[in-house]
Specification:
The complex is a heterodimer of chains A (363) and B (503). Chain A is built from 15 helices and 6 strands. The longest helix of chain A is centred in the last third of the chain and has 33 residues. The radius of gyration of chain A is 28 Å and the shape is elongated. In chain A, helix 8 runs antiparallel to helix 9 and helix 8 crosses helix 12. Chain B folds into 3 domains: 230 residues, Multidrug efflux transporter AcrB transmembrane fold; 65 residues, Alpha-Beta Plaits (2-Layer Sandwich); 181 residues, Gyrase A, domain 2, CATH 3.30.1360.200. Chain B is built from 17 helices and 14 strands. A 5-stranded mixed beta barrel of chain B has the order 4-6-5-11-10. In chain B, a hairpin with a 2-residue loop joins strand 10 and strand 11. In chain B, helix 1 crosses helix 13 and helix 12 runs antiparallel to helix 13. Chain B is elongated, with a radius of gyration of 35 Å. Classes of the chains: A alpha+beta (363), B alpha+beta (503). Chains A and B meet through helix 6, strand 5, helix 7, helix 9 and helix 11 of A and helix 4, strand 14, helix 10, helix 11 and helix 12 of B.
């Protein structure tokens, strides 16, 4: 019995390396580029669903956009019954009343979208809330937003977004080249569409904090894309007419090499944001934090995905239209066709096969 | 860089951090907390659309609002402009409804006949209320138009409307008090007011007042009564009351006969020149504020909730940092631990910078700002990760530990600069173009980006460089520097085509 156990190879030290080990040592060979048509299809479908979601469901705007008042109650003396509270407030204001009970019944957020500027009505509501919950009136936090504030911030945000996009496209064109700028730009649009779509479909509440988050996500997604492109640019310097790799294969290898970095960065970014989300959700008044964290969480995940599955395939598509890379690709495929008739049938250039054939020739 | 210079950079960096924290600890500085973290009332006022707004008008508006807020007696109020908006911040437990009412009201103009003038040496002077600030606070809101009231004169126009003889007895700094009858005309009755030079003489400036039909009737009625008093008598004065202060109390002109008042078009001749006339006209036109404002947002955060938010933010940041640290160590072993030291330094620098900026530039840390910092933890960790990944690449390409560390730095530095430029761009655009809480977020994000690059070029570089040059550490299997851990099939890696291309 013991003999057989000893004979089996220790699983912890595989010399050739399992998928896990390969991942940790950046030796993965996932075919991201070769299957770009599939990813394109997936992304198109997702974007389509998101656009449809926005068109059909619209957004759940918070009072910052619609105007209205929100009352926050903490440490209520008795458990709050939402229906009862609702009925009492409805006697004062009926329009667009929402009552949300949190913190195990001792906290609540009551918001109304009407009469934001009427001081007396507010005083009445605060009084009712105080009587109902046993909290002193001055301990009830009131937030009031005028009807035009939403339009004002939306306008500012849109302007910020446009200026940012122009600057970024300019910067990437200068720092790298216009094809990368185009690829990064399309990726950004993809990220915006998906994040916004998730908000519409799930019905998350949209506040100025969510909009901040959206802009941050764009920065983040770009940052991710730029890091991948930086690597691709580095590697592309080694490509010349005698190379044994097409541009697409080189890009695919680059993405594989930065895969651990991309995932690590996403994990290290999502950990703090996840904490923010978790803690923010369990605490009243920190809704700025939780709104922000939610959008960031959604957006960062999408940003990581898109830098690999959208930005790079798009870049390869653009680059392989350049005559020198197109010629190179043709040449390499033809060469491989001679060695391995089956490889031609693969069409788009499978890097896994490419790698094999390359090492064969070297060995 | 050789070892000596790396030590120099490291030493220089640590000295900088020590000086920064020495200052903070020696001066006992704490971050400047925003109202959402310490509790208080914050109101954003926006001009109602369709008005002409320029710098001067906005400055004037801020001044008027400041005066009104000062009358509330709140400690350390902050009134600032933010683009065309005006931000009023009242720390502590201020009364939100009252503050909004005081700040937002526009038509606080009343015309009241004077019943009596009480100079400061009159025994009745102190009966009403000791000084004028106390008097204003007692009123806590606009004087009821239908009731008589005692109000102070405008300290800037001391003794106006009083006999020159009486005027001489008024001590400096103590405006006279006016015993006033109920208001005859209020701000809403004023349809227009224009400054113009006196048409007859062309020397003095006047304010031409137009009133509504109803207001004009009342104005006529009142002035007809006042005109029966002998010229020069206080009872012949008609006080213009702005925000509970008698701005001026002009006499009804001597040539107006008793029982026949001034109708809908009155002329106020004032002693001053063009500027005074324009100011008065402006005030009469729009109540006391030069423009119509509306409350865009008004938020009241109780101190308890503020503290809870601050703690939640800090807790989230702390736990997040801890989890990231664990991840880095698991992934990179010893050099992961070095990355944790980098994160720690990052935190110390960001926090220090926020405290110092709060002290010397007046930067306030808000909840959105804390979120910005938490987001930047990811950016800081990424810089460390990129460096380590580049290092592994170089080792796989067959370099020695020392040269790999050096080459990796150069490449990672370039990536860091490119990536951080994009993040910084985002922060700057957000800061300049956005309003409200977004700016606090953008500021800390931008600050963190700069600190990240700074840290990468100094601390990260020298720490990693020195570790890689230490033979003991470089060979230790716990450091995660050796090729055995980084690239198990490193033997084949030397034949990597990239390596060949570089040689």
């Amino acid at each position: 019995m013991t003999e057989t156990i000893e004979k089996s190879p220790p699983p912890s030290k595989p010399d050739t390396g399992g998928a896990w080990k390969r991942f940790f040592t950046n030796q993965t060979r996932f075919d991201f580029i070769g299957r770009s048509r599939l990813w394109l299809l997936v992304s198109l479908v997702v974007v389509g669903v998101c656009v449809a979601g926005v068109a059909i469901r619209g957004f759940n705007f918070g009072i910052d956009f619609t105007g209205g008042a929100a009352y926050t109650i903490t440490d209520a003396q008795r458990e709050i019954d939402p229906d009862e509270l609702r009925a009492e407030i409805a006697a004062i204001v009926e329009e667009d009343l929402t009552v949300q009970v949190v913190e195990g019944g001792t906290g609540a957020i009551v918001s109304t979208q009407a009469l934001a500027e009427d001081v007396q009505t507010r005083a009445e509501i605060v009084q009712t809330l105080a009587e109902h919950t046993g909290v002193a009136t001055q301990e009830i936090d009131v937030s009031v937003v005028g009807p035009r504030w939403g339009a004002q911030i939306s306008e500012q945000m849109l302007r910020a977004l446009v200026v940012f996009l122009v600057l970024v496209v300019g910067y990437i064109t200068l720092r790298f080249e216009w094809r990368m700028a185009v690829a990064a730009f399309v990726t950004l649009l993809h990220d915006i569409a998906v994040t916004v779509g998730v908000y519409a479909i799930v019905g998350f509440h949209v506040s100025p904090a969510s909009v901040i988050a959206l802009l941050t996500i764009l920065g983040y997604s770009l940052y991710d894309t730029v890091v991948v492109f930086d690597r691709v640019t580095d590697e592309s310097k080694a490509i010349n007419a005698t190379s044994s790799e097409t541009y697409g294969e080189m890009a695919n290898r680059s993405v594989n090499e930065v895969l651990l970095r991309s995932l690590s960065t996403s994990i290290t970014s999502l950990l703090p944001v996840g904490c923010l989300l978790f803690i923010g959700a369990n605490l009243l008044g920190a809704d700025t934090l939780s709104d922000l964290a939610l959008a960031l969480f959604v957006g960062m995940a999408i940003g990581t995905y898109s830098s690999i599955f959208v930005a790079t395939p798009l870049l390869v598509f653009l680059k392989e239209r350049e005559p020198r890379y197109a010629e190179l690709k043709e040449k390499i495929l033809a060469r491989r066709g001679g060695e391995q008739a089956a490889a031609v049938a693969g069409g788009g250039g499978s890097p896994r096969k490419g790698k094999k054939s390359r090492s064969k020739r070297k060995g | 860089m050789n070892r000596g210079r790396l030590w120099l950079v490291l030493g220089g960096f640590l000295t900088l951090v020590a000086v920064m924290w020495g200052t903070i600890l020696a001066m006992g500085l704490r971050p400047n907390l925003g109202l959402d973290l310490q509790g208080g009332v914050s109101i954003t006022l926006a001009p109602e659309p369709g008005q002409e707004v320029d710098e001067e008008i906005l400055e004037q508006t801020v001044t008027v609002i400041r005066q009104r807020i000062d009358a509330l007696g709140v400690a350390e109020p902050d009134i600032a402009r933010q683009g065309e908006n005006i931000l009023v911040q009242l720390p502590g437990a201020a009364d939100q409804a009252e503050a909004e009412e005081v700040v937002g009201r526009t038509a606080q103009l009343q015309f009241r006949p004077v019943r009596n003038i009480i100079p400061p040496d009159d025994p009745r002077y102190d009966e009403v209320s000791e000084d004028c600030d106390a008097l204003l606070q007692e009123l806590a809101g606009p004087a009821v138009p239908t009731e008589p009231v005692v109000l102070c004169g405008n300290p800037e126009s001391l003794g106006e409307g009083v006999d020159p003889a009486e005027d001489a007895e008024v001590p400096a700094g103590q405006p006279v008090k006016y015993d006033l009858a109920p208001a005859a005309v209020v701000g809403a009755d004023v349809t227009d007011a224009r400054a113009a030079p006196d048409q007859a003489t062309g020397l003095q400036w006047q304010v031409l007042l137009s009133l509504s039909r109803e207001g004009g009737d009342r104005f006529e009625e009142t002035t007809a009564e006042l005109a029966c008093e002998p010229p020069g008598s206080p009872q012949r004065q008609f006080a213009i009351v702005l925000d509970n202060t008698v701005d001026s109390a002009p006499q009804v002109a001597a040539d107006i006969p008793c029982g026949q008042g001034i109708g809908r078009d009155a002329v106020i001749t004032i002693g001053g020149g063009e500027e005074e006339a324009r100011d008065l006209a402006l005030l009469l036109r729009a109540g006391a504020l030069p423009i119509q404002l509306e409350v865009a947002t008004s938020q009241n955060v109780s101190p308890t909730l503020g503290v809870a938010s601050l703690q939640a933010g800090l807790l989230a940041g702390f736990i997040g940092l801890l989890l990231v640290a664990v991840y880095l160590i698991v992934l990179y072993r010893g050099i992961g631990l070095a990355a944790v030291a980098e994160l720690f330094m990052f935190g110390a620098l960001v926090y220090g910078a926020i405290v110092l900026l709060g002290e010397f530039v007046g930067f306030t840390l808000t909840l959105a700002g804390i979120a910005g910092i938490i987001v930047s933890i990811g950016i800081a960790a990424d810089s460390s990760i990129i460096y380590r990944e580049r290092y592994r690449d170089e080792i796989r390409a067959g370099r020695t530990v020392r040269t790999a560390a050096e080459h990796a730095f150069k490449k990672a530095w370039k990536t860091n600069l490119t990536g951080n430029t994009v993040s910084f761009l985002a922060a700057v655009v957000l800061y300049y173009l956005a309003i409200g809480p977004v700016r606090g977020f953008a500021f800390t994000l931008g600050l963190s980006t700069i600190i990240d690059t700074l840290l990468f070029g100094t601390f990260t570089r020298s720490l990693f460089g020195l570790i890689s040059r230490n033979p003991k550490l470089a060979k230790s299997r716990w450091m995660g520097l050796r090729a055995q851990e980084v690239a198990p099939d490193a033997v084949g890696a030397t034949k990597d085509p990239r390596r060949r291309a570089k040689v």
